[in-house]
Structures
1.
Amino acid sequence: MRSVEQGYAGMPQRHPGIKSVTAAVPASGALPVSLLHAGNRRNETASAAVYRVLRQEIVWVRRKPGEPIIEKDIAIAQSVSRTPVREALLRLSAEGLVDTIPKSGTTVARIPLTKLPEAIVVRKALEQVTASAAAMRARRSDVTGLRAILERQREAEAAGNREEFHRADEEFHAAIAAIAGYPGIWSLVQTVKTQIDRYRQLTLPQPGRMARVIDEHAAVVTAIARRDAQRASAAMGEHLEGLRISMEDIRRMNPDFFYEDIRSEEDLLA
């Protein structure tokens, strides 16, 4: 299978001279050391390192929506001045991942629930294109690679390892875009799915959720293997559409994690 891990699904990697921010995060919310040591980013600035790790923690909901972010603690943990921390927080603010209120401080932004349906529509449209194209271009080795990723997801589901499951999920979708010959589409998808990813992290603990995702992925792979472009597109659409179904339930279970109250489930599914 074509290499898709570089730039798409690679995990956070730590600059040799930058310490992890893990020490600034409670034990229950610290990133695994393996994530912070993966690979090597020799040219990464202090600001970029802080941004990357904080972003990972926020998107993976290790830092909960509404949780305070203390610049001083992060600066001490990273052995950097507060300037790169502020620069990182400015980038995160521009992405809608943190909120900074003058004289009140910075917190992890709550998830804008009413904006999720539109983001899902955009992602669905883009990934139906890559699934269809992948079905027309896939080699047997490509299909073998997709099935190997599926097997990793099965192992992660059996172990209850949501982090590894999410990591493999990212690689699956990136691989399809690469097979299709449109890796840039996956880059575009990443720009619109930030809030979706935060929401998805909250859906994975639901009973049967990971198994259902695996079945949906398997349907996409089967269509690609059969070179059935129409079915591959439809299977991908059904998979991503499934994200909208449980929004109201997730909001009820985590009311403090969201803002912009919704009127009804019909509004979300309209």
2.
Amino acid sequence: MTRLRFTLFLVLACVFLARSATAQTAARSSSSQLAELTKKIDEQNTKIDALSQQILKLQQEVGQMKGESVPTAPAAPANVSSSPVPAASGASHVVTRGETLTSIAKQYKVGIDELQKFNHIENDRKLQIGQTLAIPGTQSPTPTSTPNE
């Protein structure tokens, strides 16, 4: 009977250790998957920014071919509210052609959601050229490069 209890104890201990090892492996696997997904998201955001710049250039070329002048900063529609005035200690950013919330967030090293919520932007696709965004948690803006027009 004692031998049976000892054997049962050993079996249970082995099962416990096996589950513990599996859980640690799963945690490491989840961590590496998260890092891999984050890297892929950054790569996709970079591609989106590059494509946005290409679209901008193509729009300018088409406008020039048609003999039209391509506006550089159209007025914001009346139904779009302007962004809040930046906090006294925070930085602000004026949106230029081809910029996205993603590119602006990366430039200031803030989260996209954080930037969107801070500026009360419901639809990130309604970002307007000339719109001033308040940058959360920053003291001064990082110098920006503007695309050649």
3.
Amino acid sequence: MSILEKYSAAIKNKDEAVMNDLLHDDFKFTMHKSGNVLGKSDVIKWAMSGDINQDKVRVVYENETRILDVEKQHQVKFNWKPFSVRAIMKEMNNIPFPKDKMNKVNYMWRDIERRAEGYGFFAKPPVPYPLSEFDLANQIAILGFDKGWGEKFVMLTYKKWFQEGKEPAIEPSISEVCAELNLNKNEIISEANSENIETKYNENTNSARENKIFGSPSFIVKNEVFWGDDRMEDAIKWSLK
């Protein structure tokens, strides 16, 4: 059972102990209509009252789901190109979470948590990193975009990674994601490791190098690079020039 399923069940069963265990002490919930902000104890009290209606539940997750929302808002379409940012960063001798700079590392994890809250959802860093099956996760995504389920795979994988602490492309994440998407896990892994997908992965990575990309997410518009989810709207504005 995923953390969201546990959360939903706790509300339905009015299980205060489970709610208390699931929610971070700094958890904040922003009411969509009023803008009022509820803390952890307020949300638990509300859940125990039986007054929460779960008929229309919508879960939003940072960059990936935000991209879908932005596409609808601005009537644009992003062309996803999974690539090996790890290979590029190694070439630049760039270590994103250096163990000898813990103040920076702690700031980066906390910044992810703050930005998640700003977008109206939660993240529970630190999460598993670096990834043991980094390349496989990207290659499954490439396969998924070829077959029409890539966006859903990426969103579900990131949710399990940043909300449940489950590393992408290994157990239990890979089995859970494939089950939710009605995919055959063994067939998916086999296809993702095929020569055709590996070639596309290398081509995407070489294209990133040629476009002077140094981090992810990056957006390319008219040979201009926009780095970071906070530059997404800037990229769209540039596309309209």
